[in-house]
Write a structure and sequence with these properties.
single chain; 4-stranded antiparallel sheet; 5 helices; disordered N terminus
Length: 365
Amino acid sequence: MNYLLKDHMKTLSTLLALTFLITAATGCSSETETIENTRSVNVKVETASNTLSASTQSFPGLVESDNQASLSTIVMGTVTEVPVEVGEQVNKGDVLIRIKDDQILAQKSQLEANMVQAKANLENTEKNYNRIKNLYAEESATSKELDDISTMYEIAKANMDALNARMNEVNEMLAYTTIRAPFDGIVARKFVAVGDMAAPGHPLVAVADPGEIKITANVPEQWIGEISEGDEVNVSIESAGIYNAAATLIAVSEAGDPMSRQYAVEAKLDDAELSSKLKTGMFAQVGMNLGSNEALYIPKTALVTRGQLTGVYTLTDDNKAVLRWVRLGQSSGDRVEVLSGLTAGEPYVTEANEELRQGFTLNVQ
């Protein structure tokens, strides 16, 4: 029993000792914090104020060639040859697509035979016409004979003209069985392969000039009145490592899409070296200054970060440091917009000669 009592007393003594140590540590901590909070720090202070700033809107865009053609045909036929690959450099006149032309060539052969016969008939009829006309002038032929041969001659000429028109049509159809590059460029896209059926009006292949690049975007109708051709915009193309590059609007559509109620715009980068990094099909963001509004901006150097939170130090009436958490908006150079947490007319610390803590006394320089 005595042993149990001794153990109990020993445990109690240990607990009392721990309590004393904790109390002493807490006291020291409070004393240290109090000492820290009484420290004086030299700071520079500004008064928060609203400034007039442009309202920036960003719209998704696409890098496209300023000189691009989607080639199609006017004939129906099987694709027999596609001798190019996407991205391949081509010159004007190079063959891009061949379409089966057997039936068209057969039609041409038949027309050529008919034209030989029609030409011979026209020449013979013309000779008879000239002969009857001379005889009629000598009163050796009747007016009926002249009328008959004149009619035959006009029919022969009309038949020849019809065959010539039909031959031109067949030659045009035959030309569309071989699709050629309309200018020097690259093959941007292929829509068919060997064995596919080519149909009138359906695209077969697209060719683009990589030296002429533009950025296209669509702007909602609510903003279209705020922009015009020649306006400065900024373009970001992450895949090309381009961010907020200066560009100029080169075209603003006067007619919007009635379904989406958006208007097409086109822009070009001002820097030719940056333009050389672009490839058709890249995704872009086009930023535009649309109108203006008042906003509160402060220097980025005034910001204080604590984990995921951002704040600024403000001053009490007796010049004590108070950390105020803020919500930030868009950046503009070395300043950033404050959406909440700080209002116009309030002083805040922009610079300190050492790291600040809550409650420090501030000596405003």
